[in-house]
């Protein structure tokens, strides 16, 4: 299970959009799930440099042989994330045992390609207009699970791993595929510009709901359990703030440790799920939820009433 605090590490997807690197031309999104490009070559490149420069490691070598030789996705991960060979070298040196522990899982990501391709096909079956970006798995500086850039989707593979003995990864390995699918849903969304808490919660809740339709799971089960246990009170609180453009404390972290962060995901999910369940035509409901011109109308037609419905 992902803790609420660790889940926040992957939320840069939403906050940064295409801001990771605007210098790349927008690559054409493809509609055939069998043709999705899943890049893992940067992982092998990283470990080659890692082995060649240990035990002291070299900032210059990370720059020259990893960052400069890497894919467009790796280069898109440099601004605000890897930052530089110097920063990466310091991070690796300081967290050497961590990197050693995640090595085997990063090298096994190629084996996940068939699973991801299966999810892409399920999404396409649910929503025939679905499109897919290129996906890059890279190794970064332990600060971001992923982001988008103009060339596609980037996943920080070093953030995910399997706990064993004294080792705890930043994020559980099973969340990696869910993160990819959640973000893919954002590529499908065609929404009117609306910065209200309601609109942003529905954006995120839709991504979680469709992730569940595709994979049978969604991220941050612990936060969802809390939401279900306090549904009535949270709904009353949410209604008082949902028209505001201030998202705190519902989305992207908060300073209140008395409850899980990012409950806007859960609230949006509850609204979206209610809309889907009340719809007589499920196929049309899917189209409606991915093409929203009126978020208040979606809420009204969902029939959601804080668990009382």
Describe this structure in words.
The structure is a single chain. With 309 residues, this protein is α/β, with parallel strands linked by helices. The protein has two domains: 174 residues, no CATH class; 106 residues, no CATH class. 53% of the residues lie in helices and 6% in strands. The protein has 16 helices and six strands. It has a four-stranded mixed beta sheet with strand order 1-2-4-3. Helix 3 runs antiparallel to helix 4, helix 9 crosses helix 11 and helix 10 crosses helix 11. The longest helix has 19 residues. It starts with a helix and ends in a 7-residue tail after the last helix. The N terminus is likely disordered.
**What is the arithmetic mean of pLDDT?**
90
How many runs of DSSP E, i.e. beta strands? 6
Number of domains: 2
Provide the helix percentage.
40-55%
Distance between the termini: 29 Å
The secondary-structure class comes to alpha/beta
Low-pLDDT segments, ≥5 res: 1-24
Strand order of the main beta sheet, please? 1-2-4-3
What is the H/E string? HHEHHHHHHHEEEEEHHHHHHH
What is the fold's blueprint, element by element?
Elements: H1 4-7, H2 12-16, E1 38-39, H3 41-53, H4 59-67, H5 72-76, H6 78-82, H7 85-94, H8 96-107, H9 113-126, E2 135-138, E3 146-149, E4 152-156, E5 160-161, E6 171-172, H10 174-188, H11 197-215, H12 221-229, H13 231-241, H14 263-278, H15 282-290, H16 295-302
Parallel strand pairs: 1-2, 2-4, 5-6
Antiparallel strand pairs: 3-4
